[in-house]
Design brief:
mainly alpha
Length: about 150
């Protein structure tokens, strides 16, 4: 007596997720190409961040000795001391006639270099951070850092 088999192969059971994926693919909307925007209408991340008032003006008006402290502490900072001694060996930096050291940020804007403060003195970087936070508000560390990097 012969037993008849329908198939020698095992029939695979389709999972529900496969059925749903096929249905979604059938009803998917076609991809639409977005037009390329001109540079002015398509800002970079740095350009799109909140501009805010010039932080250098905010700090310098609040503390008239701020720039003098920066110049004095350049000579105690290991990096900036080398830049002042031989500016031609450090092309990323430029030293102005008034003795300040400048470089550029990621957005090609001139930014003032801030030296490390001596341990027994007040922190210049802390003063900048405090003023930047006060100006921008409570939008988180990334936004405050982006704002400060526009000038320092």
């Amino acid at each position: 007596m012969w037993i008849r088999r329908e198939s020698a192969r095992l029939k695979e059971r389709r999972e529900q997720r496969e059925v749903e994926a096929e249905e979604l693919e059938i009803h998917r909307e076609p991809d639409v190409e977005e037009p390329e925007l001109p540079k002015a209408d398509n800002p970079t991340i740095l350009e799109s961040r909140t501009k805010g008032p010039d932080l250098r003006v905010e700090i310098h008006e609040g503390d008239p000795t701020f720039l003098e402290d920066i110049k004095a502490w350049y000579h105690e900072d290991p990096l900036f001391k080398k830049v002042l001694e031989n500016p031609k060996h450090h092309p990323r930096f430029s030293v102005t006639e008034d003795g300040l050291i400048w470089t550029t940020n990621l957005n090609d804007e001139a930014v003032l270099c801030i030296p490390r403060s001596p341990k027994d003195k007040r922190s210049l970087r802390g003063a900048i951070l405090e003023q930047g936070h006060h100006t921008v508000g409570h939008f988180g560390p990334q936004r405050t850092a982006d704002y400060i990097r526009r000038w320092y």
